[in-house]
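Deliverable D2.4 — example input (structure tokens):
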């Protein structure tokens, strides 16, 4: 009898200037069989080398750090060939810096005092790409810090089919594949295919960028 293969654990790098905070998060993550911390850094400059060497799936990046802040480090890492998904860590639920980081390509944000189970779920969520971390909080963040420059709806959006626009609207509200599937009487696989096509047509990296796109173009 052939044993079923076990999926490789999700590889995580922690970036925060507080060593005690990193130690606590590392213990939490390493307690999970499907997660593994593969590197740590205490500032953004150090993070660049650690992330590029460890090649993690997900990076938890503090926003405010010495030497190089999290926003600058995130922007630099996202210019790499195959960047990881980066989740910003902040102490404020309405943090303009978090909004700026997500607009630049970060895959979401988390409060540093988030419930441990929520943090673990967030890592898995952003890695799977099937939902937006804390969807309502993400939408509130962009509503509170709107883009100052109004933008016309681009031609790429107009090329979406009617069905794709319907799925776009639901995904822009932060609904997961499972929630969209249940509401639209579709399979999750079908929803996943629709979302993938939408992201490709709009040249968006992930679902949180879809939420950003909706806000920036008044499609929310």
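Example output (designed residues):
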């Amino acid at each position: 009898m052939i044993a079923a293969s076990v999926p490789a654990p999700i590889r995580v790098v922690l970036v925060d200037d507080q060593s005690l905070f990193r130690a606590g998060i590392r213990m939490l993550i390493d307690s999970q069989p499907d997660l593994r911390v593969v590197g740590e850094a205490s500032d953004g400059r150090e993070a660049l080398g650690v992330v590029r060497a460890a090649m993690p799936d997900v990076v938890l990046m503090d926003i405010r750090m010495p030497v190089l802040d999290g926003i600058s480090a995130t922007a630099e890492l996202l210019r790499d060939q195959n960047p990881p998904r980066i989740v910003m860590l902040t102490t404020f639920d309405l943090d303009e810096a978090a909004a700026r980081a997500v607009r630049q390509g970060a895959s979401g944000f988390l409060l540093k005092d988030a419930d441990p189970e929520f943090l673990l779920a967030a890592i898995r969520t952003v890695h799977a790409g099937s939902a937006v971390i804390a969807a309502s909080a993400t939408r509130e963040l962009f509503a509170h810090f709107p883009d100052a420059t109004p933008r016309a709806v681009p031609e790429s959006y107009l090329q979406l089919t009617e069905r794709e626009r319907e799925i776009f609207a639901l995904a822009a509200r932060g609904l997961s594949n499972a929630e969209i599937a249940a509401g639209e009487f579709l399979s999750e696989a079908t929803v996943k295919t629709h979302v993938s096509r939408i992201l490709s047509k709009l040249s968006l990296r992930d679902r949180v960028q879809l939420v950003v796109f909706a806000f920036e173009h008044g499609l929310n």
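DSSP finds eleven helices and five strands in the chain.
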